[in-house]
Amino acid sequence: MNQHLLVGVGREIVTPPIGGLLMGYSPPRASESVNDDIHITAFAFEYNGVRSLIASAELCSLRGIQIKDILEAVSESSGIPVGRIILSTVHTHSAPYTLVSPDERPNYIYDQFIPSARKAALDAVNSLRPAVMGVGTTQSDVGVNRRVLQEDGTITHGQDPTGIYDPTMTIISFREPDGTAIGNLIHYGAHNTASGINTEITRDWCGVAIDRLEELSGGVTAFFNGGGGDCGPRLPNGRTTGTLKEALELGGRAASDAVRAWRSITEWREVDMHVLTDNITLPLRPFPPLEEMEAKLAAMGDPSKLTGLRVSAHRNLIQRIEYIRSGAIPPTTFDILTPAIAVGPVVFLPIPFEPFSIIPLRIKQYSPYPYTVSIGYANGGYSYLPSMDQICRGGYEVWMFTSMNLVPFGDESEQYFVTGATRMIRELYQKTHGDSL
Description:
10 helices
């Protein structure tokens, strides 16, 4: 068995043809140009005969069935089991529209994206070579909490300078033992929505940081979002949406932060890699009485006049009603298959939601690893995961949390996920470090 870490990188362009709908905001708008190409970038790891893969798709979000099909395709192409793969999206709102109903087959995903994901994963595996690892961090104010509490107690979107967000930007970098660059992972938590309702295809602000670090370091670079559910880009207009020009300006600040973190790396060392896969079980919310759901459906009015996410909410409500009328008994819990991938002092953990920033921060606090990288928007598309203290405040994210899944998750899901994730991380650490906790 090989006792040295091997790392490989693969990348494919997945920019769609101009004229397709873009993700984000209602109603979706058609693209008119390409500001910067979007990609799927895969990092493959091998240690002692065990392989894993972490991939970043420069899309907004993916539904559960799409994630399942993509993970299976990547697994088949790379030979790496699904339980050792993390696939995330950067959450740019200026990428292809993917929120179709479960019974639809979006041509972009299946005809363009999946073949490209297969190729990127295969290239990553085929390029595996000995690597050393360096980690750097810096404090960045690119992001800001976006949930603003109004005088009347309602929540709107803007910038809350007193709100929680994670200011740490982390760079995980790999190079060959002779110093030849392999690649970099940028981790930071904030929506890529700075471009606002633009018509250009773009990765948004994170794209500038990716390109700048890649140019400087010589290694293929990818961005991985963190706890961005309640955080957006800190724009000078006091909001978290703006124009493409503002997105690129903010991207310049993010690029400076990424370069500073990369330059802070003072040690490159050989490391190991270990994987633990297990289920994290979350509670599900009990269905309301049938009469209450029927009244809610009637209150939504003419479905042909609904737009955006309310179309999905209407469809989900109909499915819930049909589910109860069929005599089915709703489940009370839901298992999420979760891989924890430890590479030296870093542990990567996917969160299949748009998690509020306090959730990765809590997992980091309880983790024994020096660097705990919780990757949001990964391995699932279950909408937002708000913290328990914010559910009573309501707002857009909480509405999505309660409306966008056939069987909504319970209000205690934050605590269940943190507990499950912490258990897995500690178990993986003890497995590889002995009884050193």
